[in-house]
Amino acid sequence: MENYRKITSTNYPNVILRVVPGHFVTPNSHVNYYVDMTAIKSRTNEARWAAEALSAVHYFTTPVDTIVSCDGTEIIGAYLAEELSKAGVISMNAHKSIYVLTPEYTPAGQMIFRDNIQPWITGKNVLILLASVTTGGALSRAIQSLKYYGAKISGISAVFSIATAVAGLPVYSIFSKKDLPDYETHSPENCPLCKAGVPVDGICNGFGVSTL
Question: b/e string for 109-135 if b means 16 or more Cβ within 10 A?
Fold first, then answer.
């Protein structure tokens, strides 16, 4: 997509967010920007810089045993685990190392963890890592699922977040509403772009966007 613009983090100039204006449909809402994190999630340098920023943005006061990486943030999660270890964040695991997991989802969008993975979730201090948080719907389901498996939520980190808190837990992010002040999210039935007859430009989720 060629009509994107770049937003550079004020405090972490190596971390750049690419956004595309338009009318986009996500699993939970309609938005007026597609936030493209392909480079941040896929390039090792940019993933490392994002992890360094997240380790500084989110000041950890509780142990982290496991990072659950959502939205394709596994590479960032691995670097974040490394950054937290270097910073002296405590892991209660016997080998003093942090697990980095990718969740599996049911068709209804609920996280599930197979029997072989559950020991790294149940009773563990879990950090939820996401690419973006807009309505908070997906994050709320993630929190519910992890608590169902007996996890203790250590915190929530995201590259970009409109929400500052979900389910009573703060969301720490590199980019927020102040970096993209005209970003809007609406339920499908209340979308002003739909009401104005503006066609949908694309459908997007954690994997990317499909233009129409």
Answer: eebebeeebeebbeebbbbbbbbbbbb
| The pair of three-digit structure tokens given for residue 165, joined into one six-digit string | 């808190």
d(CA 53, CA 83): 10
- pLDDT tens-digit readout, 7-25: 999 999 999 999 999 999 9
Q: Measured between alpha carbons, how far is 36 from 19 in angstroms, rounded to an integer? A: 6
Identity at 171, one-letter amino acid code: V
Handedness of CA 141, 102, 148, 126 (dihedral sign): negative
Domain residue limits, the chain: 5-11+23-206
Per residue in 81-105, pLDDT tens? 999 988 888 777 656 789 999 999 8
According to the CATH classification, is domain 5-11+23-206 in 3.40.50.1240? no
